[in-house]
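TA notes, week 10

Several of you asked for a full example with nothing omitted. So below is the full record: structure tokens for the whole chain, then the designed sequence directly under it. When grading your own attempts, check the secondary structure regions first.
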């Protein structure tokens, strides 16, 4: 019988991952202590730490800039709610103008 079939994959909340990462970065705590405390592997903790370090600068991105805000929230260019609302407004105005022009034509 395959032992990997018996393994249960655990799922962790973002809050738990953050807690583990922050614990592992404290001066008075080693990764080994954190690993044993939470029954996690080295590779999981290191992966979470790398992900944290990669994404942490986005926390401090300028939220007032709509483009930066959209990027920080994971939206592709032109797809943030603010940009889509602006586009809808522009298109609505264009439709109204076309309706008026159409009424003037014979």
């Amino acid at each position: 019988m395959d032992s990997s079939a018996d393994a249960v994959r655990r799922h962790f909340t973002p809050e738990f991952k953050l807690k583990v990462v922050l614990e592992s970065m404290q001066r008075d705590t080693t990764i080994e202590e954190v690993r044993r405390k939470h029954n996690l592997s080295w590779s999981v903790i290191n992966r979470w730490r790398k992900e944290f370090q990669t994404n942490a600068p986005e926390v401090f991105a300028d939220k007032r800039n709509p483009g930066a805000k959209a990027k920080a929230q994971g939206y592709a260019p032109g797809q943030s709610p603010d940009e889509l609302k602006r586009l809808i407004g522009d298109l609505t105005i264009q439709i109204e103008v076309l309706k008026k022009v159409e009424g003037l034509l014979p």
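The CA atoms of residues 91 and 97 lie 10 Å apart. Use that as a sanity check on your answer.
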